[in-house]
Fold:
Amino acid sequence: MNIFSEKHRDSSSRARTGTLFLPHGTVSTPVFMPVGTCGTVKALTRGDLEEIGFNIILSNTYHLYLRPGTDVIGAAGGLHRFMGWPGNILTDSGGFQIFSLARLRKIREEGVRFQSHIDGSWHFIDPEKAVDIQTILGSDIQMQLDVCSGWGASRKETEEALAASSAWLLRAKKTWEEKRREGLGGSLFAIVQGGFFRDLRERSAVIASQADTPGIAIGGLSVGEPEEIFAEYLSYAASLLPGGKPRYVMGIGTPRYILEAVEQGIDMFDCVLPTRTGRNGLVFSRDGSFALKKAEFRLDFRPIDEECGCKVCREYSRAYLRHLFKSGEILCSMLASYHNLYFLHDLVRNAGKAIEENRFTSFKKDFLSRFEKREK
Structure:
């Protein structure tokens, strides 16, 4: 099952452009996917997302399974109809959320038993059930259930997590193939784990490649490790993946991490960062990120970014946005989140253009030298 076509590769790096062929329309890569954890990208409407230019978003299996539940979403005809979203949806398996609830879960060979963060009730998910849930959701891309190893995990812990993830991949693929024969289910992606041990990353990449799923993701990065370690293991893991499939790095959303991923030939990435920081009054600009609450913006009637083409920058000033934030007005969250998502979408679009003109390396260098100047 081939869902990806490479279009152009940069002459001086692994960066590439391509096209994903999915049930709800084609997606140009590289692509940043906004996160709609509970079936909504926080503070934005469907129209906002379409206006910016997104045609794929991410939702979370764990949260939707707990609330409103698959019975509600199934009765609605799937997640697309339930949330009124005409584009594509990638759903994660819930593995990372279960990982983050270490005190509330027990990993077994069969699957994971975990306690709901909502009401304390106990639940069980195995790789087969994760596929079943995502099939009911109607995911265009679904992820295998896996066990994520955090920064600082021992080799023994990482090997155990990798063994479980590898076994669960094969079980997930079997169930997914059964669904496909019934005409159900989107494309399944395997996940490469292995923590911060090169041989374990290689072992996981071999297993994921041999499973021959339509796409492959790299998990277990941006989990607290230093920036240089992230870059090292991103580069190494990416070098192990087959070229004919889409590559996805899970959970990265800073401009540096996005451009690092693009440089290594990664096609897809997601993160809650742009909307989470937006709700807290932190916004992106080409000259770095900054907090709107600062007193220096009280009489600053410039837009967030004078080179940005989004409606927020066309219509509102830093002074007004600061006033909204200081007054606790919800409009600030809406406008800042819109701008941040527009900013990242524009960054990735311009990165794609630079790739096709064989100038990605200089594009990355120039962008980051300006963006990070404020941070130094």
Observations:
- Residues 155-181 form the longest helix (27 residues).
- The chain has a mean pLDDT of 96.
- Residues 4-271 form a domain with the TIM Barrel fold (CATH 3.20.20.105).
